[in-house]
Amino acid sequence: MGFTPWSRPCAGVVIENLGDFRVGSAPHGEVTEPCPTRSGEVPGREAARRYGGRDPVRPRVDEVRIKGLGVIDEAVLKLSSGLTVVTGETGAGKTMVVTGLGLLFGGRADPARVRPGADRASVEGTLVVESGGRVAQQVEDLGGTVEDGELIISRTVSTEGRSRAWLGGRSVPVGTLTYLAEDLVAVHGQMDQQRLLQPGRQRAALDRYAGEELVKPLRAYTQAYRRHKEVSDVLDELTTRAREREQEADRLRFGLEEIEKVDPKPGEEVELKQEEERLAHADSLKSAAVSAHTALLGDPMASAQGAQDAISLLGHARSVVDAVRGFDTALAGIGDRLAEAGYLVSDVATELAAYAESVDSDPARLAAVQERRALVTGLLRKYGEDTAAVLAWAANAAARVSELEGDDDRIAELTREREELTARLTELAGDLTRIRTSAAERFGAAVTAELAALAMPHARVVVVVSPSGQFGTEGADDIELRMMSHPGAPALPLNKGASGGELSRVMLAIEVVFAGADPVPTFVFDEVDAGVGGKAAVEIGRRLARLARTAQVIVVTHLPQVAAFADQHLVVEKARDGSVVRSGVTALDHESRARELSRMLAGLEDSELGRAHAEELLSIAAADKAAD
């Protein structure tokens, strides 16, 4: 667990997991963007220009309230300036103090850390800031308030994994706390030593040390890299699928040629079907029309006597009715309708005669229609349910062919652009390498100087910048921290050349270097002295005390040599039921400090030898601090 602003992630993303957490850093290779405030500015160091640099009154954490987190039921920590150490028996909840601070400043939330029996874990912190200062203005831009120089930040994590954050009384995304933390705190947990072995963390450390000189070139490189990747992806897709695309174009061209030869017209399939039916049954149609005509008008060659055609019968009926229609108006109406029927039958007979005259058997035309219909039907089977669909397919196919035929031009254009981008990336990557190489020498020397003050006078840290052989998201450099344990020894990677205790001191040295180049007002360390003892532990305590002259430093430690240098000593005590209650976090006076250091030294609070050794440590630490 632990976090430190060695690189800057995207804000605006609510972080929902507690456990390993890192405020102010993104996974190696992830390119992210900051989240603006309501005024369009970015919280964190990038807003420093607007707010005029750091506040004259350095912010610090004044009080932290933790509830329902791990073994902690409820605890209150009143923190002071200078060096505060937190000690206590194993399992008392010391590490949960760091976990709580991590949550307070945007760390990932793990619902498994919620205390059994509780529905949520909560952390509330009170920070002292300058009213009207830069931090206060950032908070106000985010909608929060700072009252009487106090800023309240709170965070909750439920057992379901839901996480909420508040800043100055306003609900905000957890990522907002992350960015605000860049100017307020750097936290290191027990796993940070191992993270320091990761190439991405080492690159981030060097880049942070390089500072503003690297920011603009890296931003320009990142933009060019993104475009280079986009162009390369499209170009690869076009070239790898060139054969498939050519086959597709050939298939479409064949279909277009087939349709063009037939040249179908909208609705033609219906017209052809109707014409084929008429030609195929011409004799039957003509015979039917003639027979119907005869039935209506009679056979002109037959005798008129005894005619049974429709016209004659209607005429006779009309004559009979007309003879007596004057006697009844109802019958007169029927007579009129008989007259109308006669006219209608006469018209139909005329049309039948014309139809019979127009219908002739034409085998040649029938064959032509059948052939044409077969061609059109063939298109329908392949390209659409009717001629309208076939024509639509042809239009789409023509557009697709134009697109496919334009791939060659596009490939050539993209190839030229990729070559230009490659040249640009090479130039920008060279700029990054030059800046990193220069910074690496200074960074290595600065860390080496700090190691000398941490009981490693003969150790030397070198930062190796070597070509990776390919473009990456952060450039074309491999960054590796190496250490020589003594003069003449080879410079080995940290995972091979440093013990656990040495690695702890290297990490502390790096943070101290950062504190000088890009300081934050509060540092939190969880057992930064892991794997260290004896003189080295004393030197770590001394260095932390010196760091605390200009910053608030909070350290969870198991070493009495480190605890002896504290300006404030808090002890976390475990209650009988295994929980930590409010009264379980106690600020110790001198007498109590001696008892606690005796416990840490000898395992017994009342050991005379342990007490004497504790008093000696306290005296040495006090004298050392007074002499500086």
Q: What does it look like?
A:
Residues 65-578 form the RecF/RecN/SMC N-terminal domain. It comes from Sphaerisporangium album. Residues 25-56 are annotated as: Disordered. Keywords: ATP-binding, Coiled coil, DNA damage, DNA repair, Nucleotide-binding. Helix content is 53%, strand content 15%. The protein has 628 residues and is an alpha/beta fold. Among the domains are: 1-211 and 519-587, P-loop containing nucleotide triphosphate hydrolases (Rossmann fold, 3-Layer(aba) Sandwich), CATH 3.40.50.300; 268-385. The chain has a 6-stranded antiparallel β-sheet with strand order 2-1-4-5-6-7. A hairpin with a 7-residue loop joins strand 10 and strand 11. Helix 11 packs antiparallel against helix 12 (329-358) and helix 13 crosses helix 14 (387-405). The longest helix is centred in the last third of the chain and has 46 residues, at 407-452. It starts with 47 loop residues before the first helix and ends with a helix.
Secondary structure topology:
Elements: H1 48-51, E1 60-69, E2 72-78, E3 83-88, H2 94-104, E4 120-128, H3 134-141, E5 150-158, E6 163-167, E7 170-172, H4 174-181, E8 185-188, H5 192-195, H6 199-210, H7 212-240, H8 242-262, H9 268-280, H10 282-297, H11 310-324, H12 329-358, H13 363-383, H14 387-405, H15 407-452, E9 460-472, E10 475-484, E11 492-493, H16 494-497, H17 500-517, E12 522-526, H18 534-547, E13 552-556, H19 560-563, E14 568-572, E15 585-587, H20 590-602, H21 608-627
Parallel strand pairs: 3-13, 3-14, 8-12, 12-13
Antiparallel strand pairs: 1-2, 1-4, 4-5, 5-6, 6-7, 9-10, 10-11, 14-15
